[in-house]
Amino acid sequence: MQRQLAALSPENLDLIETVARTGSMAAAARELGLVPSALTYRVRQVEDALDVLLFDRSSRRARLTPAGTELLRAGEHLLLELDAVAQRVRRVATGWEPELTIAADALIARSTLFELCEAFYALGAPTRLRLRAETLSGTWEALLNGQADLALGVPTDLAPSSGLSLQEMGSVDFVFAVAPHHPLASAKEPLDSEEIKRHRAVAAADSSQRGRGVTVNLLPGQDVLTVATMQHKLEAQLRGLGCGWLPLPLARPYLDAGRLVAKPVSQPRRNIRVGYVWRAGSGEGRALAWWLAQVEQPRTRLALLENHHQ
């Protein structure tokens, strides 16, 4: 067991990865600054310790065997786990997380989010920030999958899972809007579903990675232009490429400037309540505590939902 553990050291895993990537022991030795014979010996030691062949040596190019491929795949997870342990140790020692990841839904005003980042960096904290832009259920999924520590703009009708805490931020009104030159701009009001269905909708893709995301306000049989983000959806509707619902705070400047036209519809006006979610009871660090304290302030919550200025 001792030999096997030694064989799975970060240095050995890096050595195996380099041989696989460069395609030969000689090339890997040059990249690592080793004598070829020394590198070959270390590879043999790893293979002996694990009792497997990691490379197919029947050709001139060093190719991974299935066992070698699995070792690199599992080794990557092992290195991530080792890094996570080291991060947790440093977190306990200092109280500051090495990294804090924030998943922000498309409904969140980026200008306010960056203002909060500026205030955080002014603290001189050692925590690195990572921001993720998500849409619809992708925001929730990022937290559930451990890819985020804090999620902003999560619909509150999604019940929090065990170990997660959810607090409301407020509500967001949506407006059905089209460009002034779009055919629906001059159509009789209120627009009914049959009239809307005859025109292309613009939809922001759900950023969920599970293959089946959330689809909102699309009519059966309606042509759809799917775009990556809410900003892309806004741009497409400004160009008259389609129609659809937009968050009122995002659309308001363009409505005021006459670049978009709000159209009353026969279906109820859309309004969703959103909140922020984080992992509770896991010994939250000082960085997460600071962000939670900011979002708890009513003015900050309002700004995160309303300040969509360019």
Characterise this structure.
It holds the Pfam family HTH_1. There is one protein chain. Helix 2 packs across helix 3 (25-32) and helix 2 crosses helix 5 (66-94). The protein has helices at residues 2-7, 10-22, 25-32, 36-50, 66-94, 110-121, 137-144, 193-197, 230-238, 248-256, 286-295, 298-306, and strands spanning 55-56, 63-64, 99-105, 128-134, 150-155, 164-178, 201-204, 224-227, 244-247, 261-262, 271-279. It starts with a helix and ends with a helix. The chain is built from twelve helices and eleven strands. Strands 3, 4, 5, 6, 9, 10 and 11 form a seven-stranded mixed sheet that branches. A two-stranded antiparallel sheet has the order 1-2. A two-stranded parallel ribbon has the order 7-8. The protein has three domains: 1-79, Winged helix-like DNA-binding domain superfamily/Winged helix DNA-binding domain (Arc Repressor Mutant, subunit A, Orthogonal Bundle), CATH 1.10.10; 80-169 and 271-305, 3-Layer(aba) Sandwich (D-Maltodextrin-Binding Protein, domain 2); 170-270, 3-Layer(aba) Sandwich (D-Maltodextrin-Binding Protein, domain 2), CATH 3.40.190. It is an alpha/beta fold and 310 residues long.
